[in-house]
Amino acid sequence: MPTRHIRYENLKPAVRQVLFGRGRVELQRWVAFRSHYGFHAFYCLPGKDGAHEKGGVAHEGGRFRRNHLVSPPQVASLTELNDRLAAIDAAEDGRHVHGAPASIGFNFAAEAPLLHPLPADRITGMLCLVLRIGLSVDASLAMVAAQEGGHRAHDVLVGQ
Questions:
Q1: Which residue, 131, 119, 146, is CA-closest to 33?
Q2: Half-sphere exposure for 17 (CA within 13 Å, toward CB)
């Protein structure tokens, strides 16, 4: 987990009201989620004032979705989906973003020691939906669910 903050362009599912500048009135469940994982939300400025902050986030998220999630992957289990995403992630390590001198993998290796581990305990008190389809992706949150051996398996993907 990042040790300081995660940047968000437009996090409607977590925000009740956009205030002036970076100010937001956040939903209580979002505050509990951030507190559990130990990070702060950094909101981009709305509109044209924050356009320079948003480009890379929107571009890379859209590129990943178009290249890897259209059409949604057909998988038999959460394990299969995670294996596919891990292979995609490994293939991205050698890519250079917009002509940057260092690859994604090189930059991640330099930043990885700065990340905190995930909490050992599971978050409680959160609404969890089990979807019968293999994958549902929203602009800012994604919930993946699968049936494995009669037991429900869940994985939450967060970010944008």
A1: 119
A2: 3
In the block, tokens 């890519």 appear at 95
Q: Which two tokens stand for residue 103?
A: 């690859």
**CA gap 18, 119 in Å, rounded:** 29
68-79 pLDDT, tens digit per residue, is 889 888 899 999
Signed CA dihedral, 73, 79, 83, 89: sign only: positive
pTM above 0.70, yes or no: no
Q: What is the mean pLDDT of residues 124-149?
A: 47
Radius of gyration of the chain (CA): 17
Tokens of 25: 């009135």
Residue with tokens 């409680």: 124
Tokens read off for 15: 């925000």
Q: What is the token pair recorded at 117?
A: 């581990």
Q: Which two tokens stand for residue 157?
A: 């993907």
- Of the chain, the percentage scoring pLDDT greater than 90 comes to 17
What tokens were used for 37? 């994982």
Q: What CA–CA distance (Å, rounded) separates 52 from 29?
A: 29
User: What would the two tokens of residue 139 be?
Assistant: 């602009």
